Each structure stands twice: as structure tokens, then as C-alpha cells.
């Protein structure tokens, strides 16, 4: 359904692209699970970044995802201090609804892979510079192996 406003139609189309790509990577995931994964991972990532970097990342997201990204944000509580991949994954798991089907680690990796593909390597590397190596290893290997 078209809204008649290009800005809305465009952001819905871009957001659907993110969700379709994540759903493809998460075997047996439905549309809602793709949404839940992107929301939980982006919130956890946002809270791991400085406020300045979190805002910079938001500018790269489709407008609809940008609104979701800022939902419930408390900049004075960031960045959090997760240093391990396990702590990051646990933080994502706490943001997922009960009964989320599938692996939380797979969800994190899927969202990071789509973020890398859709934001571009340069933008992804700006984010990654703020993350400790164990969390970096959840991103596509091509980014941290070089």
C-alpha cells in the first residue's frame, strides 16, 4: 500500500529490505522474528556506543528503523561496558521476547551482516572501532580479518 508520500514509502521499502534480508539469514524465521532480532540487536549495539557515535549511526538507517533504534534510549546510561561476545549476546537475549525461536547469536550475526551490507564497509568500520575484539568477531569476518 502506498501512502502517497515518497519519504514514507521509501523508508517502508528500505526497512522491508532489511527485514527480508535478516529473515533470509535466520533459517525458519518469520517476519516478526526478523523485526524482533533487528530491534534487539540495534538497541544493544546503540547502548554500547558513545552517544555521538549512536547518533551518527542512526543517520545511516532508514527513517523507520531510526525511530525504532531510538525507542527507549537513555544516552546517560551509555556506553555500557560489555567486553565479551557472551555478554553482548546475553544483552540481546534480554531484549528478545520470550519464545524467540532460533539462536540469539545467529540473530546478532545476521543483523550485523545486513548492517554491514546495507550501511557499507566504511560506516561499519566506524562503529567497529568502538567495540572490543570479542564483540567485533560477531561481525562478518571480512571486516575484522583484514
Overview in brief:
The chain is mainly α and 146 residues long.
Structural description of this entry:
This protein has helices at residues 6-25, 31-48, 51-58, 63-70, 85-95, 104-119, 121-128, 133-136, 141-144. The chain is mainly alpha-helical. It has one domain (6-144): Uncharacterized conserved protein DUF2267 (Globin-like, Orthogonal Bundle), CATH 1.10.490. Helix 1 packs across helix 6. The chain is globular, with a radius of gyration of 15 Å.
Tell me the distance between the termini.
Answer: 43 Å
The CATH class assignment is: Mainly Alpha
Helix % is 55-70%
Estimate the global geometry from the Cα principal axes. globular
How would you characterize the largest beta sheet? none
Order of helices and strands: HHHHHHHHH
How many domains in all?
A: 1
Instruction: Write the CATH fold name.
Output: Globin-like
User: Total helix count?
Assistant: 9
User: What class, by secondary structure content?
Assistant: mainly alpha
Poorly predicted regions are none
Total beta-strand segments: 0
Q: Using only CA atoms, what is the Rg?
A: 15 Å
Q: What percentage of amino acids are in beta strands?
A: under 5%
- In CATH, what is the homologous superfamily? Uncharacterized conserved protein DUF2267
CATH architecture label: Orthogonal Bundle
Mean pLDDT: 90
Amino acid at each position: 500500500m502506498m501512502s502517497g508520500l515518497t519519504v514514507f514509502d521509501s523508508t517502508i521499502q528500505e526497512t522491508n529490505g532489511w527485514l527480508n534480508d535478516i529473515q533470509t539469514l535466520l533459517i525458519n524465521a518469520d517476519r516478526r522474528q526478523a523485526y524482533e532480532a533487528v530491534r534487539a540487536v540495534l538497541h544493544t549495539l546503540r547502548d554500547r556506543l558513545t552517544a555521538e557515535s549512536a547518533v551518527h549511526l542512526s543517520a545511516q538507517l532508514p527513517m523507520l528503523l531510526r525511530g525504532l533504534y531510538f525507542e527507549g534510549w537513555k544516552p546517560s546510561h551509555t556506553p555500557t561496558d560489555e567486553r565479551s561476545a557472551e555478554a553482548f549476546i546475553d544483552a540481546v537475549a534480554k531484549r528478545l521476547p520470550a519464545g524467540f525461536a532460533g539462536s540469539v547469536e545467529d540473530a546478532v550475526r545476521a543483523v550485523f551482516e545486513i548492517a554491514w551490507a546495507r550501511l557499507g564497509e566504511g560506516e561499519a568500520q566506524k562503529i567497529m572501532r568502538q567495540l572490543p575484539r570479542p564483540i567485533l568477531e560477531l561481525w562478518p569476518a571480512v571486516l575484522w580479518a583484514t
